[in-house]
Amino acid sequence: MTFKTRFKVKLKVVFAGLVLAIAFPAQSYFEPAPVAGRIRTMNGISMAQYPDFEKTWHLVTVRYRQDSGELRFTYANDLAFKAMKDLSPKYPEGAVFAKIGMITEDDPAFTSSKVPSGAKRYQFMVRDQKKYKSTEGWGYALFDADGNLFDEDAKAKTQACAACHRLVPERDYVFSRLMALGVGAFQSKETALAKTLEFKSQPRAKVPKTLAALLGKYDLVSALTGEIQRQAFSGTLDEIVPTLIQRSIQMQSQAALIVNEKNFSLVVPVLGGEPCQNKKQTRLLVHVNFNDKAVRHAELCQ
Ligand code: HEC
Fold first, then answer.
1. For residue 142, how far is its CA from the centre of ligand 1 (angstroms)?
2. What's the burial of 259, exposed, middle or buried (CB within 10 Å: 0-12/13-18/19+)?
3. What is the pLDDT confidence band of residue 188, given thresholds at 50, 70 and 90?
């Protein structure tokens, strides 16, 4: 199946999504528009199975996306939480993780303090070794704020979920660890995601023209390869941006995830631009192209 058919969405829907994405670039985890009330089950998993999980399960950790201002809260049911706490090498049958992606906004009472402000999406991982054999015993599901599926091919999306989670086989494909209180406690024990990703240098002449037009003076693009690139879906294009930022700063060059000429994410250091307030930071251009349209195009300092 081609990337194009996976992303076949009604024009109307794409247009609404783009208007939103462009109007709110600071919170631009873009996604294809939801299919209202049509499909509510992915891989046999639905939101209705886990009512009020955010009140009754254990909060495992919180992650913050600096580039999009998004907060992610990860919860575990009792079985998953116990295994995580015990650092068990395998999660038992019935273990379930849920992640909420929240947009943030300023608190008018104290604007430098951002507050969670509305769920954008819910993601689940359900352990059932028999049922989900081809995805390492985890059933993956993604829903919008109303519990509907996004308008994308669920099979292709499942492959994209599994492809990225395969980066952490030593954690039984679960990225999260329990929040640690010690300073630097997480990094000291864990390897960074970017270390296990593979990149390949591509000359300017080999990349699609649409992407080449956005490149700075550099002749090479450090492009992500491997399963994540092959299985990418719209969520991957956005999810990968922090990794590309890290790669771009590390290599002092441009980094990209190129699916095809219409779908790619690119990070380019901006040379000769306004210096960042914090002199240690680099000014970067972040560009995400989805179905031939720029859904994200912004400069940031990092
Ligand atoms: C490009 C990489 C990538 C893709 C694609 C991806 N994830 Fe994740 N996922 C992560 C990372 C990294 C975390 C850790 C938390 C965070 O940074 O938000 C995570 C965390 C999670 C968690 C919390 C448990 C854990 O592993 O920490 C769930 C549940 C989850 N993802 C479900 C999904 C589903 C469902 C899909 C597909 C629709 C998906 N993921 C696709 C990278 C990815």
1. 10
2. buried
3. low
